[in-house]
Amino acid sequence: MGAAGVARLHGLFATYKPPGLHWKHLRDTVELQLLKGLNAGKPPAPEQRVRFLLGPVEGSEDKELTLTATSVPTLTNHPLVRGPAFTSLKIGVGHRLDAQASGVLVLGVGQGRSLLTDMYNAHLTKDYTVRGLLGKATDDFREDGRLVEKTTYDHVTREKLDRILAVIQGSHQKALVTYSNLDLQTQEAYEMAVKGLIRPMNKSPMLITGIRCLHFVPPEFLLEVQCMHETQKQLRRLVHEIGLELKTTAVCSHVRRTRDGFFTLEDALLRTQWDLHSIQDAIQVAAPRVAAELEKNLRLGPGTQQLHGPGWHGDNERPSPALESWTAGG
């Protein structure tokens, strides 16, 4: 395998992080499997060197000794002498997931680590499915956290939930315009807003560009959230705050990332696929798309961002001005 195998590892690929696994452990496991694959290849034939060996003269009865030129292998580079050829790899982790969350986690190998920086600078949106449970509150907004309060939720309807989600989306889209430093009075800004292209200039609080309810069977509900600059704890807190707006309480039972920029669940390698050949193939397949998407998004420059990513089917209904009291920080 050698240098040729390493050359095919420069780039980005996506893994599926299961819940309960820390991202550092995932990265270390991937590195271990890659090193195992790189070192498993058949070592090259050892170099030959000429040595003069002392031996009897052929056909001599007097047991005379002579020096004979002989080609012998050089063992200084043999794996048993030198050890494994590859002992470490430089692997970077993109937008991280905490231990309890699951879903798409992007890794960069070698020169691919610089592409992770480009992904950060492009301010790409990410998609999540977030499952909530009505009727209780905990100290950390998680279902298995320390119980703080129990409440009734019989009054909560799908219509009330959808109305709250519309408020959230509307207020966050206003905040997105604010952080993009765009003057909506200009023709350029207006055209970008019409096309749904807008993004913050720099780092900002969590911004939600789309949110909708996929499933509602009390006490459970499932949300699809498209956002940027988020943490999984902020998404759990969002579920808690939605519960408060509904005059009840709610906890988050699951957070799963389904898309990170231009990587989706379909691209993510399962744990059984964290091997050298699968990762090499994934990097090579993704490379043209990575280059094209990064060039497109970085060329757009500050102030632009695709509001809805691939596969997003949420509506663009704007809430009434009376409902736009929800703030991005709330």
Automatic annotation (TrEMBL):
Example of a GO MF term: RNA binding
Record-annotated Pseudouridine synthase II N-terminal domain positions: 88-232
InterPro entries to which the protein is assigned, alphabetical: PsdUridine_synth_cat_dom_sf, PsdUridine_synth_N, Trub2
Region (Disordered) residue spans: 301-330
A Gene Ontology biological process term: RNA processing
Matches recorded under CDD domains: PseudoU_synth_hTruB2_like
Top-level taxonomic group: Eukaryota
PANTHER family named in the record: PSEUDOURIDINE SYNTHASE-RELATED, PSEUDOURIDYLATE SYNTHASE TRUB2, MITOCHONDRIAL
Homology family: Belongs to the pseudouridine synthase TruB family.
Name of protein: TruB pseudouridine synthase family member 2
